[in-house]
């Protein structure tokens, strides 16, 4: 499903996202990509993310039912609370990543635009006898506010206090404001009526929020090591590879102590007995190359493929960077190539995986080791 062009593309200076990318329907930048990144990191910026797919689930069993078929522990989520969640296939591979917020009897979901219809279709097929009704909400859209000075926009937002991470508050005129733990320490999403997009944009920019495009959001997301489904993942990705392990309090999308759900066997086996074959890392790219790689290109070492490129973006401080899934046993100082560019792994991005595993330790004890 291709998202229709955002009505905010008429904003002066708006440059649409690159064709044939997930962000083609919204503004990529407004003429100053690096300045927009600085605004989002250091001041306050508003970003059009109206190409995300919004859905809702109503019914008294909406939380307990979704809890049983997805990876996060949400049965007792609580009103005005949010979480991240995954839908996995039978082999534990990630099919969908979505953010959810329960508010006044409705569970709101937003996910990647081209994947939303498939997610709702899956949810509808799994309802059976439960009191839960999933349905698309095309009349709702997402804007994001980033930056430490968002606190100065409370009057424009019509609220007294900003919510804590994963909490939400209703907005005047409909919709809600939700705080997220990424891509920056001060990140907020507005899920609002689509008909009010232009009104909210004007209200926020007049109050001091600076327009920023998806380039800014993506650069900060990559720097924060947060993957994007379908861009930084492929059809083999399991949650451990993409840093999605963790409950709500850990800002993850996979709770390790909950009941059965599709794909749980793989999650439990990797957590207790094995290691993921790949892990997500940050690459620094050599910007002197004449050509650029693209998402999906191989990452190679000595001519041998050892990984896959995800998002490639220019960061206002770090230059060209990328997320990549690479083999777990590749030394951090290995000289790499990403398409035509030399690349190196950021050592601070390599996840620690040397902690003792409960299942492996139990097996060793039984064998007298």
Automatic annotation (TrEMBL):
Region (Disordered): 345-369
Keyword Transit peptide included in the entry's annotation: yes
Keywords: Transit peptide
Domain of life: Bacteria
SUPFAM superfamilies referenced in this protein's UniProt entry, alphabetically: Folate-binding domain (SSF103025)
Pfam families to which the protein is assigned, alphabetical: GCV_T (PF01571)
Full protein name: GCVT N-terminal domain-containing protein
Organism lineage: Bacteria, Bacillati, Actinomycetota, Actinomycetes, Mycobacteriales
């Amino acid at each position: 499903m291709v998202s229709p062009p955002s009505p905010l593309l008429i904003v002066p200076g708006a440059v649409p996202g690159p064709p044939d990318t997930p962000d083609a329907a919204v503004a990529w930048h407004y003429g100053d990509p690096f300045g927009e990144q600085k605004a989002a990191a250091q001041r306050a910026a508003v970003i059009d993310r109206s190409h995300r797919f919004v859905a809702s689930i109503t019914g008294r069993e909406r939380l307990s039912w979704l809890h049983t078929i997805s990876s996060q522990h949400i049965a007792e989520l609580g009103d005005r609370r949010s979480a991240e969640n995954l839908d996995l296939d039978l082999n534990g591979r990630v099919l969908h990543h979505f953010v959810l917020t329960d508010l006044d009897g409705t569970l709101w979901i937003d996910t990647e635009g081209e994947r939303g219809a498939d997610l709702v279709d899956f949810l509808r097929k799994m309802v059976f006898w439960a009191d839960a009704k999933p349905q698309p909400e095309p009349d709702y859209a997402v804007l994001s506010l980033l930056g430490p000075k968002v606190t100065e926009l409370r009057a424009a937002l019509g609220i007294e206090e900003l919510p804590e991470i994963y909490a939400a508050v209703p907005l005047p005129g409909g919709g809600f404001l939700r705080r997220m733990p990424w891509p920056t320490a001060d990140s907020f999403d507005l899920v609002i009526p689509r008909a009010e997009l232009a009104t909210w944009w004007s209200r926020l920019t007049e109050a001091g929020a600076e327009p920023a495009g998806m380039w800014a959001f993506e650069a900060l997301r990559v720097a924060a090591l947060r993957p994007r489904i379908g861009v930084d993942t492929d059809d083999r990705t399991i949650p451990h590879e993409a840093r999605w392990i963790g409950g709500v309090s850990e800002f993850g999308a996979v709770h390790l102590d909950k009941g059965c759900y599709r794909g749980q066997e793989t999650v439990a086996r990797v957590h207790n007995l094995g290691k993921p074959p790949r892990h997500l890392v940050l690459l620094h790219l050599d910007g002197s190359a004449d050509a650029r790689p693209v998402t999906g290109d191989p990452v190679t070492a000595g001519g041998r493929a050892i990984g896959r490129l995800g998002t490639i973006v220019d960061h206002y401080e770090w230059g060209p960077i990328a997320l990549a899934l690479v083999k777990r046993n590749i030394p951090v100082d290995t000289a790499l190539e990403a398409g035509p560019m030399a690349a190196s792994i950021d050592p601070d991005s390599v996840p620690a995986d040397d902690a003792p595993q409960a299942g492996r330790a139990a097996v060793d004890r039984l064998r007298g080791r």
